[in-house]
Design a protein that fits this description.
Layout (H helix, E strand, L loop, with lengths): L15 H4 L34 H21 L1 H69 L6 H10 L4 H12 L6 H8 L10 H28 L2 H8 L2 H11 L7 H19 L6 H26 L5 H18 L2 H8 L13 H24 L2 H9 L1 H11 L7 H17 L5 H37 L9
């Protein structure tokens, strides 16, 4: 058998220019030499040829796509996923911070609303307590006069109860203060209202005597007026003390002149005249009006002298001073009801006939009124105490109308209303005109801002509608 021998033709040599030369149209590349970067490229004598098929062309054309597909899960998508996660984490943190701040703001608003509501409730209770205690005192006096006609003894007995004001204040100090003081130390501290040296015998007689006399005269004249007039009339006339305080302060203390308070004083005087004219300037009516006006005058003089000589006082100093007045009343004025008893001006017999229950009721309510006045001035505003006092007028009117079946004349009713309006005018602050102007200007500014916002919203709405219709509205300059 003959052996066949195959001759292999030598590979043709290719240079770089021939390899890089363009392939003519219609001709197919017979071979492609692929060389990876960094690898050993075959020499021109060791080159390898590879027949290109449609599959190989597809593989070559699909290589960049495969490379992109291989890259995208591992590189681009993973990077974008990390960015999205970081953005979502930042957004979640920002949302959590905003929600926590909103919760804190809502809690703060709730706390402020609660505190404001509690303050309003507290002030309302102070006003109601002051008014109720004064109405109760007046009505108890009227009931006591039915069986016991001794007004000075009632005044003396009620004033003695003022001694208990300082012990009540000290009990409150022990219950609320963190640093508790002994009774003697607290007493000496509150005695500074009389001066730097405290309460001495000379100051006790010099400062306490005139105020104790004014206190006794105020209450005694008030009780005498209640014997002649109704509780409503007396409480209304007693409200004139605010006008008298202003007039005395303007004359003696050189306080600021205010036209509104002058008008209030004129209204108070007009109400007094109308009240006296109600029964024709005769009989018990004119005497009762004189008693009530005298009581209001001595009360105003007491307040002006207190401001002149003692100045302002805190609750402890006021409690100490009022208790000192009660002590002075017990020691030095006790002789007066004894003299009235033996001269049979105020005579009662037997001793068991004295209505001690009503007397204790009057004294207790009077004590409560004095405590509330001093506490209310310190813990709230003095204007609230004044409002509570003037509200005693409609309170007494309601009791007189429902219980005693009183019929008020038109003149008395008009006088009462005029006095109450004058009393309320007295409560206006000194800068009431400036405050009123500022309030009116703020209302005007708020109205202008609301009008501007409405115009802006209407113009935006007009533009949106015109754009939706395919037209643009151009506002005129």
């Amino acid at each position: 058998m003959r052996k066949h021998s195959a001759r292999v033709a030598p590979l043709p040599s290719y240079n770089v220019s021939e390899l890089n030369s363009p392939v003519p149209d219609g001709a197919s590349r017979s071979s492609v030499i692929q060389c990876k970067p960094g690898g050993n490229c075959p020499s021109r004598h060791r080159g390898m040829t590879r027949q290109l098929s449609p599959l190989s062309v597809a593989e070559d054309s699909a290589a960049p796509i495969l490379e992109l597909q291989n890259r995208s899960p591992s590189g681009i998508c993973r990077h974008s996923r990390v960015e999205r996660q970081s953005r979502s984490g930042e957004e979640g943190t920002q949302t959590h911070t905003e929600s926590s701040s909103q919760e804190a703001d809502s809690q703060t608003r709730c706390q402020s609303c609660t505190s404001t509501f509690l303050k309003l409730i507290w002030r309302f209770l102070i006003i109601l307590s002051v008014s109720s205690s004064w109405v109760g005192t007046t009505q108890f006096v009227k009931i006591t006069f039915e069986t016991f006609d001794c007004p000075f003894f009632m005044t003396w007995f009620s004033t003695n109860w003022n001694i208990m004001i300082f012990p009540i204040y000290y009990s409150g100090h022990l219950a609320t203060a963190q640093e508790k003081q002994s009774p003697i130390k607290k007493f000496r501290e509150c005695s500074r209202i009389f001066g730097e040296d405290g309460l001495t015998l000379k100051l006790f007689l010099k400062r306490t005597a005139p105020f104790s006399i004014l206190w006794t005269l105020t209450n005694y004249l008030y009780l005498l007026a209640l014997k002649k007039l109704t509780a409503t009339d007396v409480s209304a006339l007693f409200c004139c003390n605010k006008a008298f305080v202003f007039l005395l302060s303007w004359i003696v203390l050189k306080d600021r002149f205010m036209g509104a308070r002058i008008v209030a004083a004129i209204m108070a005087i007009t109400g007094i005249v109308m009240m006296a004219y109600a029964d024709g300037f005769q009989g018990d009516s004119i005497i009762g009006v004189a008693y009530a006006v005298g009581s209001a005058s001595t009360s105003a003089l007491y307040k002006v002298l207190f401001k002149m000589f003692l100045g302002s006082a805190n609750f402890g100093e006021a409690a100490h001073f009022v208790s000192t007045l009660g002590f002075f009343n017990f020691i030095f004025i006790s002789i007066t009801p004894i003299i009235l008893y033996f001269t049979k001006v105020e005579y009662w017999y037997p001793f068991s006939a004295v209505p001690w229950g009503y007397l204790c009721g009057v004294a207790g309510l009077w004590l409560a009124f004095n405590i509330l006045v001093n506490v209310g001035v310190v813990l709230t505003y003095p204007i609230l105490i004044s409002i509570g006092t003037v509200l005693s007028v409609p309170g007494n009117a309601a009791v007189d109308l429902l219980k005693h079946k009183m019929i008020f004349s038109v003149v008395r009713l008009g006088a009462t209303i005029i006095i109450c309006i004058g009393f309320l005018l007295m409560l206006l602050p000194e800068e009431w005109d400036e405050i009123t102007l500022r309030f009116i200007n703020s209302l005007k500014e708020k109205k202008s801002e609301d009008h501007t916002e409405d115009m802006t919203e209407s113009s935006v709405h007009t533009r949106s509608r015109s754009r939706a219709n395919g037209t643009v509205s151009i506002p005129l300059a």
